[in-house]
Amino acid sequence: MTIPRFGIGTYKLESASVLQGVINAVLPIGVRLLDTAQWYQNEALIAEVLETELPKHDLERKDVFIVSKVHPRNHGYENTMSSTIESISHFGYIDLMLVHWPGMHGSGEHDMKTLRAGTWRALEELQNKGSLKSIGLSNYTVDHMKELLEYATVMPSVLQSEFHPRCHQESVRAFCKEHDIQFMGYTPLGRRDLFEKEIVKDVAVKYSITPSQVLLKWGLQKGAVVIPRSSCPERNVENALSWTDGIELKSEDMDTLDQLNDDHRYCWNPELL
């Protein structure tokens, strides 16, 4: 399985017009990965937009790479099986299905280890049937992944987790490298405070690129697949240029950006699950 190195996040992209604008902006410049989730409640809409827009670019379903995720409330074999079959129905098949979170609301009231094992077994079976081309994890910690190794018959191909210069995820990425799991970083731009840091702006000036492009290049050069999200077509094109413009940050600038690390998370912390 070959995973595109750059993709588009679709969280909170919930209208056909917005999705059409984003998709029609990025397809001509080679972006093929779209990241969604049951939680986002836009799988069906994305499928509908792709059905109408792909032919305009002489593309077919097989030309795009769809990532989706099992909703935390659907943990367990039966819930995962039924909800994932519904997700698959929108796209015909799914290129990569992830377990969105290792826990769920009220995790303390459930045997999460048993539920996680059931979730993974359902995904393995759907992959064996060909409905899922590959399966993986999202927001799993090293301990969660070690637990999965106890029962998995299919290794996860991807781990998706928060990743930016303030959150390096070093132990998680080291585990992924050891077990040949591709790391995929979400929220690669952090929040406004990150791309307004003087360090980031100075590097941007040095290369005549934007702060967001600096942050995305940092993630790409760390070996991650990056999936920034924006509802603005122009911003998505700007972001994608970080992958296609051929500019590479020098090692000293990567080291400078590394100094921003303070293990800060803008999203939920899965270590609490």
Look at the helices and sheets and give the structural class: alpha/beta
Order of helices and strands: EHEHEHEHEHEHEHHHEHH
- Uncertain residue segments: none
The order of strands across the largest sheet is 1-2-3-4-5-6-7-8
Average pLDDT taken over every residue: 96
Distance from first to last alpha carbon: 30 Å
Q: What radius of gyration results from the CA coordinates?
A: 18 Å
| Percentage of residues in DSSP E strands | 5-15%
Largest sheet, strands/sense/barrel: 8 strands, parallel
Summarize the amount of helix as a percent range: 40-55%
Give the overall shape.
Answer: globular
Helix count equals: 11
Count of extended strands = 8
Summary?
This protein has 273 residues and is α/β, with parallel strands linked by helices.
List the helices and strands and how they pair.
Blueprint: E1 7-9, H1 16-26, E2 33-35, H2 43-53, E3 65-70, H3 77-91, E4 96-99, H4 112-128, E5 135-138, H5 142-149, E6 158-162, H6 170-178, E7 182-186, H7 192-195, H8 198-207, H9 211-221, E8 225-226, H10 233-244, H11 251-258
Parallel strand pairs: 1-2, 2-3, 3-4, 4-5, 5-6, 6-7, 7-8
Helix pairs in contact: 1-2, 1-10, 3-4, 8-9, 9-10
